[in-house]
Amino acid sequence: MIRPDAELxxxxxxxxxxxxxxxxLNGVNLQVRAGEIHAVMGRNGSxxxxxxxxxxxxxxxxxxxxxxxxxGSDLLELEPEERSRxxxxxxxxxxxxxxxxxxxxxLRVSSNxxxxxxxxxxLDTFDFDDHVRERLSVVQMDPAxxxxxxxxxxxxxxxxxxxxxxxxxxxxxxxILDETDxxxxxxxxxxxxxxxxQLATPENATLLITHYQRLLDExxxxxxxVMAAGRILRTGGRELALELEKTGxxxxxxxxxxxxxxxx
Amino acid sequence: xxxxxTDWLTRLPAPAGALEPIxxxxxxxxxxLGLPTRRQEDWRLTDLTRLQxxxxxxxxxxxxxxxxxxxxxxxxxxxxxxxxxVLDGHSDPLAGVTLPxxxxxxxxxxxxxxxxxxxxxxxxxxxxxxxxxxxLASQVLALRIRxxxxxxxxxxxxxxxxxxxxxxxLVVEEKAELEILEVFLAxxxxxxxxxxxMHLGQEARVRHGVVAQGSGDSGLMxxxxxxxxxxxxxxxxxxSRGWALGRLEPQIVQVDGQASTVLKGLVLTADEQQFAxxxxxxxxxxxxxxxxxxxxxxxxxxxxxxxxxxxxxxxxQRTNAAQLSRNLLLSDRARIDTKPELEIVADDVRCxxxxxxxxxxEEEMFYLRSRGISSARAAALLLRGYCQEVVDALPPxxxxxxxxDHLLEGLEQ
Lengths: 264, 413
Ligand SMILES: Nc1ncnc2c1ncn2[C@@H]1O[C@H](COP(=O)(O)OP(=O)(O)OP(=O)(O)O)[C@@H](O)[C@H]1O
Ligand SMILES: [Mg+2]
Hints:
The structure holds two protein chains of two kinds. By secondary structure, chain A is α/β, with parallel strands linked by helices.
């Protein structure tokens, strides 16, 4: 839902970032307002996950230029945990397995960190158990997954559902979902997309990183961006995704070549 | 400071009590062996100054301040579904204890026959920590186990600034089943010399847990000799932390193969602590199995050592053994030495081994932090997860002890 007067949640200006002295992001510009859903597409290796990790504060990525403001303040100077507590959520493309740490305990510690920030009462194990069971319905997840170690031995699709369960618990303001659709079977895709739609409100915003129109049939984006060589090359409405489906990315390569912004 | 073995031996009280002849022989052996030196492979990395420090401690006094009193606030009541024995090196461990059905004390001649048998079988004779215990221990808790008996908890305490020598002999008969948890506690400055012998008859099953919790300047020197007959199954889970100087020596022999052995160890060291685990697994017959996991976490300027010997002579065809040593360094100044020693002569065997030394994983840390969990809390969660694997394998009796919380005390911010 586009409302020009809605709060500007995320304001990315000319963002440059490197990993191990290798530039990956080469001037990303993106504005996200409350109520909006943005899709970010682009070839493998174009920098989509890097953008998401820089926004979440991964220590391996170094910001070398530009700025990111989140609800008016500098996002980049915050620790990853502070960003999360303030409502920035990253759904990982590859959720990490953590043997020996119970999923339930992890979800509880994590939710309480966010709740504390929001001035809400922290939940003890008992109350949290009720709360999480209620949220499981958002992604129709089997409660048995709560008893296991975080993501350990989860199938690809189960890991993605667990990510959206975390989103449902953390109640974020800006959610960046990195290929949440990949690895999901057809039914699971519908369930997860339904969950994301259910969590979308006029107060929050979602950035969907995806390769496929399939997801965008379920979650209608307000904007579609195409990334190439670490920049957003083109922005359009949902029809841009449909066009990409037909034409592929060849035109992107040409455009990148003609602007002289080669892939590093 | 005690600088020679003779020095120390001359200060000991005269041999006395039921184990007098053994004490005598032990002292003779020590006089010959002298103190360990760094030239000996087994002691190359040991802080020998601390070892000498142990020798300056007086023997546990004949005062009834027992193990329970020593660390009373941390000790849960005796297990409801099991029984407890308290060892302190001087009072009678069976005073006031009603032995459950299936358990009997070894009598004079039986004891004479059985004591030392497993040690000899395991090649433990003339081993320094063994002779050290021999020269000191004045009593032995010697039990025969028949059938399936209730779980046994052995509480081994050492009161402040003293050395307590304790010794156990367990004869687990054919087809018998035993769950035993040994809990070592020590006040600062206290030390244990512990020697355990266990014989598992055919088809016997033993789950053996060791929780060794030191504090301050405490020391631990424990030797566990275990002899397994065919089709027996032995599981040893050891969890140690908090020893200024620790040495744990499980020596297991499968005398005629076809037995199963599981060894899981976890050692946490911090500050300036040093802990060494020397395991020896020897297969003397065909189709034996070993599943071994050794984990260490080293913080501060501590030093953790693991030596895992596996012997597979020609007679031990179709042995299946796996040994894994996984280590976590929490500080740049901590040190971990891990060494598998595989001696394999038989040709038709499967022996896998591996060792890793890592730090907390950046991706795991980031994942937790990206969920609002502070880096200190994230590190603590990961550490807990790392330890849980071994702690969860302890026999059920251990659930009454706050093992994991004690383990991580001071390591979690
Ligand atoms: N930690 C890293 N170390 C080295 N190179 C990296 C690292 N992270 C990203 N890169 C490189 O940066 C480029 C962009 O990677 P990124 O993961 O952001 O791509 P992507 O657009 O998400 O691709 P995909 O669609 O395949 O997920 C790639 O060439 C990748 O190899
Ligand atoms: Mg990616």
